[in-house]
Amino acid sequence: MIRSLTRRLLGSAAAAVDRVATAAVSVHASRRAQTPQKPHSDRLRALQRLEARVKSSELADFCLEPVAVEPELRELKTLSSGSLVSDLSWVSPYSPADSEIAERYQSARENSVAVARRFSRGQARPVVILIHGYMAGPFALEERVWPLALFDRIGFDVVLFTLPFHGLRARAGRGGVPEFPGEDPRIGVEGFRHALFDLRCLIAWLQLQGHARVGAAGMSLGGYTAALLATVEPKLDFVVPIIPLSSLADFAREQGSLSPLPEEAATQHALLESIYRPVSPLARPSLLSPNRALVIAAKADRITPAAHARRLAVHLRAPLHSFYGGHLLQLGRGEAFQRVAQLLSDMPPCPAGV
Fold it and tell me: CA torsion sign, 54 to 56 to 246 to 144?
């Protein structure tokens, strides 16, 4: 009983941290805005125009197939564990699908170079690609966020992948708030399509290096991306979304970004769901069997509440594990990562051809 009470109190503190951080990001983003916020009626009309333009998109044809890439490798150091740390970079041969924002999207030259950091024992070990959350991505930060030693101990190499417009891919002078996903749904859709393409190219390259098993885990925005990857990449070995986002429309509603008028807000929500459908992890069935997936939720999460994780777990037909902390103050996450380690350790290789 005392332990339960302590966890509830700590969970309340973690929830408060999430609320304060969310408010701070909102204030910072509004101060950076180049133009005043449009009235909700104008935003609604813009969404209606965009939805009419994209609603006929075929899901099967939307995502690009991977192509062969040859990353430039820069060796950084060898850890005491024996892992060699190397930075990978390659020019992403990506072409935007939306002609309306193609020029703006491609004007960020930094974003045209895909980057990742690999921790490898130099053997053909299985690999877990780790995908960061929103406003994250710098390798020095991600090395502290993820339990790299745990993955190494259970026999996995690690690759830290950087999402579009984050970390080293951020547009020069942009500051701390990335433009992806951002307020413009066109950039959001394009960014996820780009992320999928770069991830699939990376997976293909890793398999050519001898890594027969390549899976993905992601936090928050990265959890959404990892779950989305599991619906389009047949060679993915496993997936673990952690404190994930599952719906950008739901997130906008939860963060108070929609109209204060209920009917107008409901229409905005439906339009956003339709616009983001081509890059929604809920729009296609998972290509993985349920025993190759695990979803992690945080009970006190006030940024991507646990309902997002539950929805993804149902869609992926995956077990759901919850820890008592929040999105940022991840109290109890050690037990959650032990569940991840157990999943990866006990999981047999995929049958041939799967």
Answer: negative
The set of residues, in sequence order, having a beta carbon less than 8 Å from that of 104 and lying 6+ positions away, is 187
* Whether this model's pTM surpasses 0.85: yes
The string of DSSP codes covering 25-84 is HHHHHHHH-SSPPPPHHHHHHHHHHHHHHHTT--HHHHSPPP-----EEEEEEE-TTSPE
SS (H, E, C) 289-353: CHHHECEEEECCCCCCCHHHHHHHHHHHCCCEEEECCCCCCCCCHHHHHHHHHHHHHHCCCCCCC
pLDDT in tens, 213-254: 999 999 999 999 999 999 999 999 999 999 999 999 999 999
Pairing assessment for the beta strands 320-323 and 113-120 based on DSSP bridges: unpaired
Instruction: Dig out the tokens for 230 from the structure.
Output: 């599991």
**What sign results for the dihedral spanned by CA atoms 47, 221, 134, 198?**
negative
Distances (CA, A) of 102 to 94, 95, 108, 339: 11, 8, 11, 42
Q: How many CB atoms lie within 10 A of CB 167?
A: 22
